[in-house]
Amino acid sequence: MILPNDDELLLQKLREESRAVFLQRKSRELLDNNELQNLWFLLDTHHTPPLIGEEQMIGYDDFKKVGEMSGDKYKHFFTSVVFAKLYQQDPLGRISILQYFNYVMRKVWLHQTRIGLSLYDVAGQGFLREADLENYILELIPTLPQLDGLEKSFYSFYVCTGVRKFFFFLDPLRTGKIKILDILACGFLDDLLELRDEELSKAVQENNWFSAPSALRVYGQYLNLDKDHNGMLSKEELSRYGTGTLTNIFLDRVFQECLTYDGEMDYKTYLDFVLAMENRKEPAALQYLFKLLDVKTCGYLNVFSLNYFFRAIQEMMKLHGQDPVLFADVKDEIFDMVKPQDPLKITLQDLINSGQGETVTNILIDLNGFWTYENREVLVVDPGMDDDV
């Protein structure tokens, strides 16, 4: 598809208008609330007895009958494929009405959301750039009751915080754009739109990256680290992140490999760092950290790489008056944990497949993480012990 050039303003306007008309037509094809209520009424009055507990079921004949009564707008929900997808081994060959209705609701929501996102797809090619997603989230804020208390002066930081999660996990090659289909499939939008619920518990909010408490926590940490209040973080300032026990060698690598300005890190780059550190079981986070650990850019970690980072752990142990652990022992433990295909090289895929990526990175970059690993057996509390003993 040939896109209009930047100077072809009339063609650009025509294209935008035609896309808007197309999306409006698609939106009208979706079931509205009244039509969904009508569907529920028809399913309720044509269920196939008997009940399973209190749950209504519907057989294929009644299912097709409801489809015929509903009309053309509903017909793609009443196919044999849909029925088979929801069949759960009922001895009478029926499906759950509630499960079916939830399936329809989910499909309608997905199509609505896809159309909503597509309105921000300036190029019209099924991708959103960072600026597009920023506009989407910014205009979404007033519709989310859980964000009512946010100061407008914080909106730009909130939007940046939200957008980074999408791009950190969905744009691993850093192309600057992500597929709308990937946004719909990843589940992050569910977390974002969960903020429509006015009754969210404190625990749920704390575990939701997009909640106001979570965004304020991350930004507050950034401000606390920024001791000279210049809006950027130096290596020395970042060294106080978490428990303040990240090694200098690792921090050097962060500032070598990540985007910095005159040797300092901005909030956007800091967000990528936080997402990597807080999600070390996830492939995207391990990819971020693996790039830092791969000092020779050879695509794998070998004995040299492991020793390069672990030497800094040994030095920190000496500074804290602890007896350093022998590298040979740690190296053997790491290779035993990961079980790489090549016994002398650990690739990113080896690290991901092993399920031990978080433990390995803890051992190599963070004294506190290494100490926790070394004392894991001591730290397992006997449930029969009295806390006062």
Secondary structure layout:
Elements: H1 9-28, H2 33-45, E1 57-58, H3 60-70, H4 80-86, E2 95-96, H5 97-118, E3 127-129, H6 130-140, H7 155-170, E4 177-179, H8 180-186, H9 188-193, H10 202-206, H11 212-225, H12 235-238, H13 248-257, H14 267-278, H15 283-293, H16 303-319, H17 327-338, H18 348-354, H19 357-365, H20 367-374, H21 376-379
Antiparallel strand pairs: 1-2, 3-4
Helix pairs in contact: 1-5, 2-3, 6-7, 7-11, 7-14, 14-15, 19-20
Named CATH architecture of the largest domain: Orthogonal Bundle
Succession of helices and strands: HHEHHEHEHHEHHHHHHHHHHHHHH
Rg from Cα = 27 Å
Between the first and last Cα atoms, what is the distance in angstroms?
73 Å
Give the CATH topology of the largest domain: Recoverin, domain 1
Mean pLDDT: 91
Textual characterization of the structure:
The protein has 389 residues and is mainly alpha-helical. It has three domains: 33-111; 122-206, Recoverin, domain 1 (Orthogonal Bundle); 240-378, Orthogonal Bundle (Recoverin, domain 1), CATH 1.10.238. The protein contains 21 helices and four strands. The protein has helices at residues 9-28, 33-45, 60-70, 80-86, 97-118, 130-140, 155-170, 180-186, 188-193, 202-206, 212-225, 235-238, 248-257, 267-278, 283-293, 303-319, 327-338, 348-354, 357-365, 367-374, 376-379; strands spanning 57-58, 95-96, 127-129, 177-179. The strands form two sheets. The protein has a two-stranded antiparallel ribbon. The radius of gyration is 27 Å and the shape is globular. Keywords: Calcium, Cytoplasm. This is Serine/threonine-protein phosphatase 2A regulatory subunit B'' subunit gamma. Its main location: cytoplasm. It is found in: Cytoplasm.
